[in-house]
Amino acid sequence: MISYADEIVRWVILAGLSSPDIAREVFGTPDIDNKSLTDTVALIEAKERAARAIAGEASVAAGIKENIGEATRTCGSNHEMRGMRTVSPTLWHK
């Protein structure tokens, strides 16, 4: 008897992808129809990890800009950037 359980689970996972961008990338992968369940899950995990990393970078950049803007509004002057922090005494006294 031939078991199609892995094949069915693989297609249920593919049908349930919630991100249209990830779904587009996964379905655009060459030979997606011939990949095993393990390979398909690994591919999806890699795409999701990359998407989270990109989203994380964007939120970190937004946070840095927000802190710089707050320092400027609080003390009224621009400060030199050093690495990821703004040199401003007002940032440390919130």
Would you give an account of this structure?
The protein is mainly α. It contains 4 helices and 2 strands. Strands 1-2 form a two-stranded antiparallel sheet. The protein has one domain. A hairpin with a 2-residue loop joins β1 and β2. Helix content is 66%, strand content 4%.
Chart the SSEs and their pairings.
Blueprint: H1 5-15, H2 20-27, H3 37-75, E1 81-82, E2 85-86, H4 89-92
Antiparallel strand pairs: 1-2
Features:
94 residues, mainly alpha, two-stranded antiparallel ribbon, 4 helices, 2 strands, elongated, disordered C terminus
Helical percentage: 55-70%
Helical/strand content category = mainly alpha
How far apart lie the N and C ends?
Answer: 69 Å
- Beta fraction of the residues? under 5%
Q: How would you characterize the largest beta sheet?
A: 2 strands, antiparallel
Mean pLDDT: 75
Could you write a compact summary of the structure shown?
With 94 residues, the protein is mainly alpha-helical. It has helices spanning 5-15, 20-27, 37-75, 89-92, and strands spanning 81-82, 85-86.
